[in-house]
């Protein structure tokens, strides 16, 4: 599986932990999908809104917050008793997997469980376990939650692309283009499709990107321009 490496909340403690967790996903989600300059904004806004909206779901929210705290824990000697640390990355990864797995199992069907499944997919991808990443992403896609499912579809499509199954990936992204969600707009999905096709079908990728160059949303136009520039450089 290809490892792709290209790289906003009030100031209370909960907000900071959410922000750090979102930043983690924003960086590591590149193991699954490159959305150029739009991806970070999508995930930051989507998860931040969800996490603040969900205070009424205190138990599930606390479980999710704790899993994210583990995910963002430091590695090495403990220098502050208020900071969670693990002696090794392996120990932290094991604790992260257990925390998210327990959350996904205990609160199956909830939004928090879907975030846990997505996070587990990201972690599996980081470890080079494409089969586990695919399994987790399919669970989110098949959950019936269109919003989180749309994010998982784009990630799953990129995974398929890295395995030479671009046709399967194209079908997934096209379904998001046809039925955009609050988390993934039609334009964002179109850019993801163009990126999937930029090597196998450059003319089609350009045809998808050109109309987005002048999009009034700077993140969309910027992502389209960046991809077109990348394609020109790789000619």
Outline the structure in words:
By secondary structure, the chain is an all-alpha fold. It has one domain: Serine Threonine Protein Phosphatase 5, Tetratricopeptide repeat (Alpha Horseshoe), CATH 1.25.40. The chain is built from eleven helices and two strands; from the N terminus they run H-H-H-E-E-H-H-H-H-H-H-H-H. It has helices spanning 13-28, 39-53, 58-71, 89-106, 111-126, 130-141, 146-162, 166-178, 186-197, 202-209, 218-233; strands at 74-75, 85-86. Strands 1-2 form a two-stranded parallel sheet. Helix 1 runs antiparallel to helix 2 (39-53) and helix 3 packs antiparallel against helix 4 (89-106). The chain is globular and about 55 Å long.
Task: Give a brief outline of the structure.
The protein is mostly helical and 235 residues long. The chain contains eleven helices and two strands; from the N terminus they run αααββαααααααα.
């Amino acid at each position: 599986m290809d490892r792709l490496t290209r790289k906003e909340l009030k100031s209370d403690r909960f907000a900071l932990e959410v922000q750090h967790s979102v930043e983690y996903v924003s960086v590591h989600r590149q193991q699954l999908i490159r959305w150029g300059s739009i991806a970070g904004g999508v995930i930051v806004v989507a998860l931040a809104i969800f996490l603040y909206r969900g205070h009424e779901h205190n138990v599930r929210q606390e479980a999710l917050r704790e899993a994210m705290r583990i995910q963002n824990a430091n590695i090495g000697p403990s220098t502050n008793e208020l900071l969670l640390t693990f002696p090794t990355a392996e120990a932290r990864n094991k604790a992260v997997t257990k925390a998210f797995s327990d959350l996904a199992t205990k609160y199956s069907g909830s939004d928090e469980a879907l975030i846990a499944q997505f996070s587990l997919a990201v972690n599996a991808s980081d470890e080079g376990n494409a089969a586990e990443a695919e399994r987790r992403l399919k669970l989110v896609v098949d959950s019936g939650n269109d919003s989180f499912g749309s994010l998982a579809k784009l990630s799953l499509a990129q995974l398929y692309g890295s395995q030479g199954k671009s046709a399967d990936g194209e079908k997934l992204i096209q379904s998001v283009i046809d039925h955009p969600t609050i988390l993934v707009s039609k334009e964002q999905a179109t850019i993801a499709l163009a990126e999937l096709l930029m090597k196998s079908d450059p003319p089609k990728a350009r045809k998808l990107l050109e109309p987005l160059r002048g999009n009034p949303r700077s993140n969309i136009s910027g992502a389209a321009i960046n991809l077109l520039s990348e394609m020109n450089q790789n000619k």
